[in-house]
Amino acid sequence: ATKMILDCDTGVDDAMAIMYAALHPGIELLGVGAVWGNVDVPLATRNTLRVLDLVGRTDVPVASGAAAPLLGDRPEFAFHVHGADGQGGAGDDAPVRPAAPTTAAQQIVELVRAHPGEVWLVPVGPLTNIATALALDPELPGLVAGVALMGGSARRPGNVTPVAEANIHKDPEAAAAVFRAPWPIVMAGLDVTMDVILTAEHRDRLAAGGEAGRYLARILQHYGEFYRDEVFGEWQCCMHDTLAVAAAAGVLDVRLAPVVHVEVDTTAGPGRGQTVVDLRGVYRGFPAQHGAHCTVLLDVDDRIADEAVDLIAGHGALP
Ligand code: BDR
Ligand code: CA
């Protein structure tokens, strides 16, 4: 099984990614970090613990991380997308166990050092915790299997500015540090996550499943309404974060993913937070780029949405 540490700003699609990683037989989930982003970090931590409880994974340690971007700017949350509780306004207040007595960055360093060469880091929120872990342990890039992240966009518009995707735009300095470090990176950005859609039929299949599926169906409702009103014109939503998990686990059917240079724009102008992806090789079948270490997903099979829904709906469901 693929050893993995998730790092999330839990959020609705993050909750699904956690369920998927926690339940997938090909994934060994070593730990989860919480980071500010969709919601503040105490709420992201609570939601992460709650979701792991729901799938019976109280064995997975959850560590709380950064409350604001690296430079200390005021954090901007996305409650309008994810609801006041980060769970589409449909979460519950069931008690949760305490978080681990360590920071998310420290937890990354410890778990990676315990399994050198084996661990995939899977950040699906702003990259603040990952950049902090890098600063704590500059040898990290040589010690991980890789980093599979949800974020950025190569040839699609952004979702928070014309060119920037939320996870990168929220902390461009952290993202720049992560993309500069010499570890293998897999970027699941909007190029693919805008194409892998959860429909009302998926929601209904979840609602007919076990406790985790029913919870996910409930929290998806508001998220799909946001996407209906702001993006698609009908009730459906992007699966986003689960794609990074599936890519790290090697269970995503990838159709086009060149290995190219990626830089993050950290200027103060209209490009801030953009992933500048060098796709100039497109006319020649993407020849190798010297020193490039970022695999940018450009086309994937969207049946991963069905597989994820079935996995989660099936957990604890009556036969
Ligand atoms: C990303 O931003 C967050 O709202 C989602 O959880 C996802 O990680 C999409 O741009
Ligand atoms: Ca997220």
From TrEMBL:
Q: What name does this protein carry?
A: Nucleoside hydrolase
> What one GO molecular function would you report for this record?
purine nucleosidase activity
Inosine/uridine-preferring nucleoside hydrolase domain residues? 4-302
Keywords recorded for this protein, A-Z: Glycosidase, Hydrolase
* Provenance organism: Leucobacter triazinivorans
Q: Which InterPro entries match?
A: Inosine/uridine_hydrolase_dom, IUNH, Ribo_hydro-like
- Keyword Signal assigned: no
PANTHER family, per this entry? INOSINE-URIDINE PREFERRING NUCLEOSIDE HYDROLASE (PTHR12304), URIDINE NUCLEOSIDASE (PTHR12304:SF4)
Gene Ontology cellular component annotations, sorted alphabetically: cytosol
Membrane-crossing ranges are none
One GO biological process term is:
purine nucleoside catabolic process
